[in-house]
Design goal:
The protein is of the alpha+beta class and 150 residues long. The chain is built from three helices and seven strands; from the N terminus they run αβββββββαα. Helix 2 crosses helix 3. The longest helix has 27 residues. The radius of gyration is 16 Å and the shape is elongated.
C-alpha cells in the first residue's frame, strides 16, 4: 500500500481477515481458512491440505449474507514455509464476474472493519449504510485495484 496514511492502515486490513471455505472434488476443508489475496482472474488462499493443480473447487466466503460461492480450479499449490502442514493455493474462477463479486465481498469486509474500528476508537455507532458512505468517501479511492499487490 506504499505511503498510505496511518488512518488508512488502521482501517483497511489485509484480506487475510476474511474466512474462506474450500470444497474440492470429494474433499471438504475441515475448518475455514483465510483469504490471502484477490487478483485479476482469481484468488490465493491458505489450505491445510495440498490441492492438485487442475482440481475443481467451490469456494465459499460465509461472512456475508447470502454467502459468496464461486466455482474455480486450482492453478498452483505450494507449501507455506511459515507453518508446517499449511499450503498456499491459487484458484482461478470459472466465471469472470466472480472476480468482481469477490472484490465486492472484500470491500464489504473492509467496511465492516471500519465500522467496528470507529465504534472502538471513537465510540460512534454506525449502521451499515452510514459506515459504507463514510468508508467510500475516505478510502475507496485507495482500495487496491485488481492485479495490484497489497
Amino acid at each position: 500500500m506504499g505511503s498510505a496514511p496511518l488512518a488508512w492502515r488502521s482501517f483497511l486490513r489485509h484480506p487475510a481477515d476474511i474466512p474462506i471455505e474450500i470444497d474440492a472434488e470429494g474433499w471438504h476443508q475441515s475448518a475455514p481458512r483465510r483469504l490471502k489475496d484477490v487478483s485479476l482472474g482469481g484468488l490465493a488462499c491458505r489450505s491445510d491440505h495440498p490441492l492438485t493443480v487442475g482440481a475443481r473447487v467451490v469456494l465459499t466466503i460465509p461472512i456475508v449474507e447470502p454467502a459468496f460461492r464461486a466455482a474455480g480450479s486450482v492453478v498452483w499449490c505450494r507449501r507455506d514455509g511459515r507453518d508446517y502442514g499449511d499450503y498456499e493455493v491459487g484458484i482461478r474462477f470459472q466465471e469472470a464476474a466472480d472476480v468482481f463479486a469477490a472484490r465486492m465481498v472484500e470491500q464489504i469486509c473492509q467496511i465492516e472493519h471500519y465500522r467496528q474500528e470507529v465504534l472502538r476508537s471513537e465510540g460512534r455507532v454506525l449502521d451499515g449504510e452510514a459506515a459504507a458512505l463514510e468508508w467510500i468517501a475516505r478510502y475507496a479511492a485507495q482500495f487496491p485495484a485488481l492485479g495490484s499487490s497489497h
